[in-house]
Known about the structure:
By secondary structure, the protein is of the alpha/beta class. It is built from ten helices and five strands, in the order βαβααααβαβααβαα.
Amino acid sequence: MAKIVTISREFGSGGRTIGKAVAQKLGVPYYDKALIKQVAEETGFDPAYIENAGEYAQEKSIFSYFTSFAGSTGVMGGMSASDFLWCMQRKVILDKAEKGPCVIVGRCADFILKDRTDALHVFIHADPAFRADRIVRVYGESERSPAQRLKDKDGRRSVNYKHFTGREWGASRNYHLCLDSGVLGIDRCVELIAELAAEQAEG
């Protein structure tokens, strides 16, 4: 099978749930929170900071995100905390991929492992209405509207991805497979990804 499966996703699309189920179906390790723990151990950063900064821009606007680096004193070799975290996160993901088959959700893993011929890169998306309903059911209500929560999360994730990869987040050309979980359903997405991964092994 494809040795590595990376799953990128829109907020509320069920990408993390799909990733866990795919890993279980294939009988391979699943990495998401585990990556955060390891990066925390190797850097000394607080896990809560890593969980947020590893995928999301720290500011709401693109301008403030990029200019935030200008005043940074750096944490190692003149790098900002975000850049240093990126380097460490990249190292951990590369190490995990070398150790054996696995499923990795988020954290720009699709870009970090883009040159591997044994990796299957997947993007999960869905209609805003489906995602808005799902985040309320899964994460509960918030002071902000579901639509605003989706816009903020996806916007920050997009800016962060662009900064570190130079690519457009969610662009189909960056992935081998793009699935609409709202139309196909979570279970069908799991089946399709697992089946394709297995077929790659036979090919």
